[in-house]
Amino acid sequence: MEEFKTRDPLDETFQRPVRLPLRLWAKVDVLAKRAAAAGKVSPHTNRPVSANDIVRSFVEHSLSAHELTEGEIRVAPPPAAKKKPAAKKGRGT
Q1: Strand, helix or coil for residue 4
Q2: Which of 21, 30, 74, 86 is deepest in the core (most CB within 10 A)?
């Protein structure tokens, strides 16, 4: 069934700061305000479109265009998270 598919670990949202000149952030903010005013909703958050949605859309479209001209960009899967050992009872005191 479609709703029980396992998610690709590379689809997890990961926060990294993007450093852009103020002029570009101002343009991104204008686009986000226009989209939100038009009633558009983010497919990722189900809330009005934000600057993050605009930047994400630009990056996705740019990468798709790059792959059309240069070929697919292959990425390695992220390493598996290490589990912390469970605390042992009865230690200390």
Answers
A1: helix
A2: 30
Is the pLDDT at 22 greater than 80? The verdict is yes
Cross-strand bridge partners of residue 41 = 48
**Tell me: the pLDDT tens digits for 40-75?**
999 888 999 999 999 999 999 999 999 999 999 998
- Residue 73's contacts (CB-CB under 8 Å, 6 or more residues apart) are 63, 66, 67
Do 33 and 25 form a contact (C-beta atoms < 8 A)? no
Cβ pair 32, 53 in contact under 8 A: yes
Would you give the end-to-end CA distance of the chain in angstroms? 51
Q: 81: which 2 tokens?
A: 């998270």
Residues contacting 11, CB < 8 A, separation 6+: none
Residue 53 contacts residue 60 (beta carbons within 8 Å): no
Number of alpha carbons in the 13 Å side-chain half-sphere of residue 68 = 6
Place of tokens 């029980």: 4
